[in-house]
Amino acid sequence: MSTVTTDSQANGLDRYFQITKRGSTLSREVRGGIATFFTMAYIVVLNPLIIGTVPDGTGEFLADGDLSKIAAATALVAGIMTIVMGVVANYPLALATGLGLNAFVAYGIANLDGVTWADAMGLVVLEGLIILILVLTGFREAVFRAIPSQLKTAISVGIGLFITIIGLVDAGVIRKPAGPVPLELGVGGFLAGWPTLVFVIGLLTIISLMALRVQGAILYGIVGSTLLAIVLEAWLNIGTQTDATGEVVNPTGWGLTSPTLPDSIVQTPDFGLLGQFNLLGSFSALGGVSVFLLVFTLMLADFFDTMGTMVAVGSEAGLLDEEGNPPNTRRILVVDSLAAVAGGAGSVSSNTAYIESASGVGEGARTGFSSVVVGIMFLLATFLSPLVAIVPYEAATPALVIVGFLMMQQVKDIDWDDIEIAFPAFLTIVFMPFTYSITAGIGAGFVAYVLLKVVRGKVRAIHPLMWLVAGLFVIYFAIDPIRGWLGA
Prior knowledge:
Layout: H1 2-17, H2 26-40, H3 42-51, H4 67-89, E1 95-97, H5 101-110, H6 117-136, H7 139-146, H8 149-170, E2 174-175, E3 184-185, H9 194-211, H10 217-236, H11 281-286, H12 288-317, H13 329-345, E4 351-353, H14 357-362, H15 368-381, H16 385-388, H17 393-396, H18 398-408, H19 419-435, H20 438-455, H21 464-477, H22 479-486
Antiparallel strand pairs: 1-4, 2-3
């Protein structure tokens, strides 16, 4: 009797999430969800270090410097919103506090004179509500559909290079040296340190398993590398690269967290940060013009980051239609907008779609069930934050490099003989990794696309929304001079 019930439940999941229809299996979805979680679980550790160690405009620290409270709220909001993405939009996309956005909020908004963290979170909520309105009115989806398909391909390729450089930098394979050269290999031009060896072994293990067509290659690589890291740390006492103040004292140490087994893997979470936001408090502290410019900057980054991410993930999963659009586009965008609101309301900064979701797709995930798995693991992480902290950068980031390789293969679909699309695609691809910004890459490509169409006398071929978006990106790139001109 129990077998029949189990089979019925499995069939119900299959029908609801279209697992078989999309060419996947329940085990692949679970593996994909686990792989995605472990490649982005670092946010539970990293977000508190970014937003919890910068004083706001009144000199106060978020949660009074209690990083565990920030970690719990970070994991909670990410877990809930990722489950919502899976159930509502049925898309293999995970959400969490946006890197880059959280730094901008901490350093560019919250520490302005007179601004409290609650005021800054109010701006994040406001930005999310505005984007939600743009989605519900169809504007955000219309903009997405107005983008030429080959530019969407370029966005996917650019994001592939972007996550590759993220993986290499986080693993310490690529670093910023003290001299005039912007980047170099390892330490002093050489690969050095046991953590780097863990990365190399993990990378070679995953690609070897993939070459042998082993299902679960990415997940096996992450787990195996983590176990190796734990053994090496216990044997050699390597330690982390930075001390408590963030100063690099051990260049060949672990990049983010030391993979040591904690005394206890369970910790009761404190969700006291939830609801600590002041929707309109920043207006009195900054004035209307400054608030508008800050919200505009947040909104434009959030607006296009998700678009690029969902295209890249959908392309890798084979879920896009002939025009490069994913299924349930509006639902995806609605959930993403609500995630921005939830991040602000949870006092952990705007939540957005994570390109690390592509690691789960690389593992075989094709449906929202993998997102449900990711979300459940984030919820468990609110209690198991010591366990999450075991996985070092060097064990998780090989997955990003592998997925970057897979996404790079799409570059052949761009017509490199047509300068009108080739040059905008080129700018899109190179700007993302070189500026560390998906938004900057998309903006550079859009502006170049419109310009070349005008230069060649093909004004009528430009979709009206592309005119609007390109103009907004010009403002985005010139936001600092505009602020100076307005005295904001």
